[in-house]
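Aggregate trends can hide what the representation actually does to any particular protein. This step matters because it turns folding into a mapping between discrete strings. For completeness, the protein is quoted in full, as a sequence line and a line of structure tokens:
=====
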Amino acid sequence: MQHDSRTQHGEQHQHAEYPQDGGYAAHHAPHQEHQEHQDHHGHHQHGGTDKVSWPMAARATLHCLTGCAIGEVLGLVIGTSLGWGTVPTMALAIALAFFFGYAFTLRGVLKAGVDFRTAFRVALAADTLSIAVMELIDNGVLALWPGAMDAHLTDGFFWGVLAFALFAAFIVTTPVNRWMIGRGKGHAVVHAYH
């Protein structure tokens, strides 16, 4: 009899702690869902392309595009103001795009406390393909758009075409970055230092 009363008391205690409408599983479901979400998030970072989110790829592309756009605009401004032709102006713009693209990544990696040589290697691994694709699309649009390279810096037409070229570069490069991050390359290399 004493055993029965303890059993009943234990059952009442158990029912009080875990209500009948959900029991133990319902009580611990939020914790399990949180753990599953963390595991799912981990797969996003380390899985294949289908596991990498588009916003993650877009952020990586935007980071790269910012440095490229600064270098691109600076190169076009310098080349145009010096009266250079299309080829030397574009060459300078591309060189500066790579320089500023790498510089943005270098700055972030150096903050993690690594030496310059390591940081430079990370920047090369993270950004080379991304910048190359971006510059190919961007300069391709500028070169092929009739009159774009002949327009003056004070001409709104020039800036409109440049804005469209940078947007096109962003659209084309985002899937490239998504593919690279999904394989642990590109900006996935930089994430280890943040």
In short: The chain has seven helices and no strands. The helical segments are 2-17, 23-46, 54-81, 86-110, 116-144, 156-182, 187-191.
